[in-house]
Amino acid sequence: MNQRTTADKWFEGSILTALILVALVMLFPFYYITAVSFTSPIEYLQKTIVIFPEKWTLDSYRYLFSNNVFIQAAGVSTFLATVGTALSLIITSAGAYALSRKRLQGRRVLLILILMTTLFNPGIIPPYLVVRDLHLINTIWALILPVLTSGWYVILMKGFFDSIPDELEEAAKIDGATDMGVWFRIILPLSLPSLAAFGLFYAVAYWNTFFSAVLYITKPDLRPLQIVLQQLLIDSSSSSSGEIANSMAGEIAIPTDTLKMAAVVIATVPILLVYPLLQKHFAKGVMVGSIKG
C-alpha cells in the first residue's frame, strides 16, 4: 500500500492553493461587476472603487427592466436563444440521422460537401448577398437561418447515431413505424446527451449574437441584447453610446456605469443558469461521436 509522504502532501497543497488563487483572480471581475450593479448611486459616486457595497439596491435593474430599449433587446435575444436553438437542433439531428443511414443514396458526396463547409470559410460578402437576395435584411430570421446548423455538429451527431444499433430501427419498422416515427420516437429520446450538449452550444451562440446583427439589422426594435450592451459599454462621448446612455439614464440619477454593470450581469446570468440544468447530460454529450460502439 502506497503511503503519501510529507513532500507529496505539501506539493498537493501548493497546487490546490495555486488553483484557488487562480479561480479567485478569474472570478473577481465578475464579482466586481455584480457588486457595482447593486451599489446605490450615492455610494458609487462617493467611492473610487466598490468591493462590498454598504447598501445594496436594485435601482439599476429596475430601470433597465422599465426601459423599452433594453426590454426589446432582451426579448429579441430570448427569441433567438429559444426558437433558434430548437430549430437548429431539429435540423442538425434530422440531417445527422439521415446521413447515418447507409441506404441513403449519395451519402458520401453529401458528407464531403458538409465537411468542406467546415474547412473553407466563405467570408462576409457571400453570406450577406444571400441574406439580401432572400429579403431577410432587417428581419429576425436573418439572425437564425444563416447559422441554422453547423457542418461540424452534423458530423459529430452522425457519429453518435452510427453507434445506435440498426436492430432498433428494424424492429420499429416491423411494427409499422415510418422513418420520421423512428427518428422522433426512438432516435431523439436516445440522443438526449448529444441534444443537451449541442443545445447548449447553440443557445450560447444565439444569445451572444452580435456580428450578424451588425451586418443585417438596422431597425432599433430588432437589435439583440449584445448590441445594446455594446452601445452601453463604448465611450459615452460617441454619438451612438450617447443616445443609448441618455435614453437609459435620462430622468433618474443613476450613474451610467452602474447601468452598464447591471446590463452585463443580465446578459451573462441566463447562460450561467442553463448549464446546471443540462449538466446531467452535458458530460456524456461532449463525447458525442468520439466512440463508435
Walk me through this protein's architecture.
The protein is mainly α and 293 residues long. Helices cover 70% and strands 0% of the residues. The protein has helices spanning 6-37, 41-46, 59-66, 68-100, 107-119, 125-133, 151-162, 166-174, 179-190, 192-207, 211-216, 225-233, 239-249, 256-285. Helix 4 crosses helix 7 (151-162), helix 10 (192-207) runs antiparallel to helix 14 and helix 12 packs across helix 14 (256-285). The longest helix is centred in the first third of the chain and has 33 residues, at 68-100. It is globular and about 75 Å long. The two termini are 36 Å apart. Residues 74-278 form the ABC transmembrane type-1 domain.
SSE series: HHHHHHHHHHHHHH
Approximately how much helix is present in the residues? Answer: over 70%
Q: Alpha-carbon distance between the termini?
A: 36 Å
* Major beta-sheet overview: none
Overall mean confidence score, pLDDT: 82
- In the CATH hierarchy, what is the architecture at level 2? Orthogonal Bundle
The total domain count is 1
Name the assembly state.
single chain
The CATH topology is given as: MetI-like fold
- Total count of strands: 0
Beta strand %: under 5%
CATH class: Mainly Alpha
Q: Which value, in Å, is the CA radius of gyration?
A: 25 Å
InterPro entries: MetI-like, MetI-like_sf
Pfam family, one: BPD_transp_1
Transmembrane segments: 12-33, 69-97, 109-128, 140-161, 182-207, 258-278
Main location: membrane
